[in-house]
Design brief:
A hairpin with a 2-residue loop joins strand 20 and strand 21 (about 330). Helix 8 (about 295-315) crosses helix 9. This protein has two domains: about 65-215, Uridine Diphospho-n-acetylenolpyruvylglucosamine Reductase, domain 3 (2-Layer Sandwich); about 225-340, Alpha-Beta Complex (Uridine Diphospho-n-acetylenolpyruvylglucosamine Reductase, domain 1), CATH 3.90.78. The chain has a five-stranded antiparallel sheet with strand order 6-7-12-10-11, covered by helices on one side. By secondary structure, it is α+β, with helices and mostly antiparallel strands. The protein has helices spanning about 25-35, 85-95, 160, 185-195, 200-215, 235-245, 260-270, 295-315, 335-340, and strands at about 5, 15-25, 40-45, 50, 55-60, 65-70, 75-80, 120, 125, 130-135, 145, 165-175, 225, 235, 250-255, 255-260, 275, 280, 290, 325, 330. The structure holds flavin-adenine dinucleotide (FAD). Flavin-adenine dinucleotide binds next to strand 3, strand 8, strand 12 and strand 13.
Length: about 350
């Protein structure tokens, strides 16, 4: 039995269904609902989800709202309910002239999802502003408080991505009063160099919005989930070889190796604009796959498979999806989705 249409609850707008959907509007309601033994998954704005089949489980939609604010000598604190809209909260802080979140403006989705993949953009990651996260264990109904350290943040990773059984109800942000803008990203650097006055949180947020609007398709007009793949990290030795073969390949040194730009790899293979059925590689941004109108999950998975194979053959690099893939049983690996949809 699959009865709840999900097409308008995920920004890729794939036509899938779930057995049941429960809109959670308060912590009390959640406490009464838990523990749950049935299959479930938590949904925010659906901007990082790809439903490749009808999901045979229950969806808990996070609609909990509310913001509390306090401060000490050094920092501003905000405890924000997980169902609040991320961008609205970023702009709320910018309007109060409280800095720290402005580089993360216009990322779609909810506050409760931000810790899950440790969202990041333009030189800032969620982990830098996270004080603590409150989540309920759906299996036991117990409330947990996670310090920043407990969250085990890494590039697009956290404990919540490894252990999918927490429902994040609140996130507490700690924003320093000694704010310094983060302007290392090329376009922000060039913009700030031309300014006659010091950048403010609001002016940086507005610039980030302009940069993003110029580069990324609006999911309401062209359905997508942002970056489809993570930027891969390779060994120093592998990176040196690639630099030798492709001298204009962008590379960034990170703690565990060298990070490559997945978009550059895809673009270099001439795959921008490539499409299979209704799924396509965005014509301006190779890291974004789009639904041109009537994409099926097979179209998207086949296109992603073609990209993964081509990148691997040419560069010896295996791309991993950044998007969360969900099949009929819940979270799924790319290979499993591909096998199921192509019967290989
Ligand atoms: C155009 C576009 C641009 C984007 N740009 C960026 C970017 O610059 N940087 C970036 O990092 N991401 C980006 N994204 C991805 C996406 O916006 C983020 O990952 C966002 O945090 C997802 O929020 P959501 O509420 O839509 O989560 P959903 O897609 O609903 O869920 C994502 C994951 O989080 C889990 N989850 C959601 N809410 C909760 C909760 N309350 N408790 C526990 N688990 C939860 C879900 O179960 C799922 O696993 C972009 C997406 C789009 C469409």
């Amino acid at each position: 039995m699959s009865s709840i249409p999900l097409q308008h609850l995920n920004t890729f707008q794939l036509n899938a269904h779930a057995n049941e959907l429960i809109a959670v509007t308060s912590v009390n309601q959640l406490e009464q609902l838990l523990p749950l033994t049935h299959p479930f998954l938590v949904l925010g704005g659906g901007s990082n989800m790809l439903f490749t089949e009808n999901y045979q489980g229950r969806i808990l939609a996070n609609n909990i709202a509310g913001i509390k604010q306090w401060e000490d000598d050094n920092s501003h604190y905000f405890q924000v309910a997980g169902g609040e809209n991320w961008h609205d909260f970023v702009m709320h802080c910018a309007e109060l002239n409280i800095g720290g979140l402005e580089n993360l403006a216009l990322i779609p989705g909810s506050v409760g999802a931000a810790p899950v993949q440790n969202i990041g953009a333009y030189g800032v990651e969620f982990s830098q502003v996270c004080h603590e996260v409150i989540g309920y264990d759906i299996h036991t109904g117990l409330r947990h408080i996670f310090t920043n350290n407990d969250c085990q943040f890494a590039y697009r990773e956290s404990v919540f991505k490894q252990q999918r059984h927490f429902f994040i109800t609140q996130v507490t942000f700690k924003l320093t009063k000694q704010w310094q803008p983060q302007l290392s990203y090329g376009e922000l650097k060039a913009w700030s160099a031309e300014l006659n006055e010091a950048p403010t949180s609001q002016s940086v947020a507005n610039k980030v919005i302009d940069v993003r609007n110029a580069k990324l398709p609006n999911p309401e007009i062209l359905p997508n989930v942002g970056s489809f793949f993570k930027n891969p990290v390779v060994t120093t030795q592998h990176a040196k070889q690639l630099q030798h073969d492709y001298d204009n390949m962008p590379q960034y040194i990170v703690a565990d190796g060298v990070k490559l730009a997945a978009g550059w790899l895809i673009d270099h293979l001439g795959l921008k604009g490539k499409s299979i059925g209704g799924a396509g590689v965005h014509t301006h941004q190779a890291l974004v796959l789009v639904n041109n109108g009537k994409a099926t999950s097979s179209d998207v998975i086949n296109l992603a498979h073609l990209i993964i194979e081509s990148v691997n053959q040419t560069f010896g690099v295996v791309l991993e999806p950044e998007v969360n893939l969900v099949d009929r049983d819940g979270y799924s690996k790319f290979e499993t989705c591909h096998k199921r949809l192509t019967n290989v």
